[in-house]
Amino acid sequence: ATGKEAGGSSSKDLVTAELFRNQGTVFALPLSRRPLMPGIVMSVPVECDKIIKELTEQLHPAGSQAYVGTFLQKERELSPDEDASELPYTVDIDPDDPTAHLHEIGTFAQVRHITSKTEEDGEVQPASLMLYGHRRIRRTATVSTDPLQVEVVHLKDDKYDNTDDVLKATTMEIVSTIKDLVNANPLHKEQLKLFIQFGGDFENTSRLADVGASLTTANNKKLQAVLEALDVPHRASLTLALLKAELELVKLQQHIGKQVEEKISKDQRKYFLMEQLKSIKKELGLEKDDKSALIEKFQKKFIEVEKVAPAEAVEVMKEELRKMNSLDPSSSEFNVTRGYVEWLLALPWGKFCPEVLDLNHAQQVLDAEHYGMQDVKERILEFVAVAKLRSSSQGKILCLVGPPGVGKTSIARSIAKALGRKYYRFSVGGLSDVAEIKGHRRTYVGAMPGKLVQCLKAVGSSNPLILIDEVDKLGSGFRGDH
């Protein structure tokens, strides 16, 4: 490597790099996430206090230099609870064979700065080294294990013809792809600034290939292949392939991001336009907001109901409507009150079906729809006769008992037809919660009134004939029989 390739920030650095050209023993820093490329600056956390102490001493007095060797850890199978993206830059050393898990070829790096160990939120943050990669090295032997020191030989690139047209074209394509990548992802600009600051030359194909590979998110195996490539044309070819793949990945990411942004922008634009349209219509008196329109609708319905509903019900409705006026439409209490008022106004206040208390008509209906069952028909006719004498059949209850299939349900429908009333049936077989009949508390989300209230709304009459079927199949629970 030349002094220019060493990339120091001063003449002192360049001279020191020349002095350490043939340094044979260095501290070895294992890396687990990605290799350090020559010409690249990387921060590496180090937990070995002995290495930090030794390197700190080497950097004093001021102006002195310290160097280390970085070696990528060989890939290993991760356990199910490990995430490759969360692995630390440095790994623990195997005391039995400290270099078995490291690649032979690494990077001879200069220590630019040491950050001491710190403590944040009760957690100790390890010391870190700011490293600048100088050149490729190959480890040949282990000198010591605590701290880990290895003997290395410094590697040179294979000789190549820098006037070769193919190599020139490859270099130009690498430069062009890097420009496109930087335009697509401005985060890479800082890395290029550091490359130029430390003496990087875009006409130096060897260094250009290294910095190009460092800009990608390729996996460890591909980056290590670039680091181990001493043949510069081959290294440039590998880097160009990685850069092209990275550019396609960035374009895909931008395409996905653009689609999401367009969808969000379209939805937001539609929302803002709808809000503006509502405001304009409200100002022109063409439309009122949802709350005002809803309350106005309830008020119109209330005027009709007020004439026929009992005084107690009218007072409750008035109170609930006043409450709605003071509540915010987005509050949960508003929705609860709205549901309650809707049910109150939906009930058939004052609506009754005219009763038909005609014994002959009742006899004809029963005989037309059921054969036999004389004792049952006589009891029903007796019920109609008593109702006619009293001019009312309100509050009467009949209990129909018999085995399945004898016509209990169907004859109840015939009774409703004979009396001229609306008919409603609901089954209580297997029912274990009395709230299904009585209704749920209003405080519950999605609370519904009981079956009897639902019946009145469904039939639209205040005097229907209601059949409660399968009473014998009522469930039982910890509250007792229901």
From TrEMBL:
- List the GO molecular function terms: ATP binding; ATP hydrolysis activity; ATP-dependent peptidase activity; serine-type endopeptidase activity; single-stranded DNA binding
A GO CC annotation given for this chain: mitochondrial matrix
Q: What GO terms in the biological process aspect are recorded for it?
A: chaperone-mediated protein complex assembly; mitochondrion organization; protein quality control for misfolded or incompletely synthesized proteins
Annotated Pfam families: AAA, LON_substr_bdg
The record's annotation in SMART domains points to: LON (SM00464)
Q: What is this protein called?
A: Lon N-terminal domain-containing protein
Q: What is the native source organism of this protein?
A: Pyramimonas obovata
In which domain of life is the source organism classified? Eukaryota
Name the SUPFAM superfamilies on file.
P-loop containing nucleoside triphosphate hydrolases, PUA domain-like
Q: Where is the Lon N-terminal domain?
A: 26-247
